[in-house]
């Protein structure tokens, strides 16, 4: 499989999952994360989404010298990366808290706000590269 084919699979899957992750995030925010099934659904769609982002970055930079290459990116893309990291870290902390306390925490609210920012930047990132999705 060529790198272009891998990008196509990765990016189209990300584009498919993004609105689902956004919808589940809005639902959790609107209900203050009440109910186990919405949380589990969010985990089921958000975890593959986050893994695909790592794969997307790997396809661009591989593992060698990726920090050097990454530092040369445009500011919005670097902001997207930092938002991704913050979303991931706060997500792990929120999940840990939820597993222990089985309830909503203020950290979950912070995770949600950062996640919404990340999704907004991801939508902008995707729109800026819409030519990729228009290719046959």
Polypeptide structure, described:
The protein is mainly alpha-helical. The chain contains 6 helices and no strands. The protein has helices at residues 3-30, 36-61, 66-70, 75-101, 106-128, 130-134. Helix 4 packs antiparallel against helix 5. The longest helix has 28 residues, at 3-30. The model has no long low-confidence stretch (mean pLDDT 86).
Topology of helices and strands:
Blueprint: H1 3-30, H2 36-61, H3 66-70, H4 75-101, H5 106-128, H6 130-134
Quick summary of this structure?
With 136 residues, the protein is mainly α. The protein has helices at 3-30, 36-61, 66-70, 75-101, 106-128, 130-134. The protein is 84% helix and 0% strand.
Based on CA atoms alone, the radius of gyration comes out at 16 Å
Please describe the biggest sheet, giving its number of strands, its sense, and whether it closes into a barrel.
Answer: none
Our estimate of the beta-strand percent is under 5%
Contiguous low-pLDDT stretches (5 residues minimum) are none
Shape: globular
Features:
136 residues, mainly alpha, 6 helices
């Amino acid at each position: 499989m060529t790198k272009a084919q891998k990008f196509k699979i990765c990016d189209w899957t990300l584009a498919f999952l993004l609105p689902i992750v956004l919808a589940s995030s809005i639902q959790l925010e609107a209900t203050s994360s009440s109910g186990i099934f919405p949380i589990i659904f969010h985990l089921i769609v958000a975890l593959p989404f986050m893994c695909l982002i790592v794969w997307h970055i790997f396809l661009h930079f591989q593992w060698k010298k990726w920090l050097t290459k990454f530092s040369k990116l445009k500011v919005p893309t670097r902001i997207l990366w930092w938002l991704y990291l913050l979303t991931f870290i706060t997500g792990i902390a929120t999940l840990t808290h939820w597993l222990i306390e089985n309830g909503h925490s203020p950290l979950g609210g912070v995770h949600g706000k950062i996640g919404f920012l990340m999704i907004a930047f991801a939508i902008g990132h995707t729109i800026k590269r819409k030519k990729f999705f228009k290719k046959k």
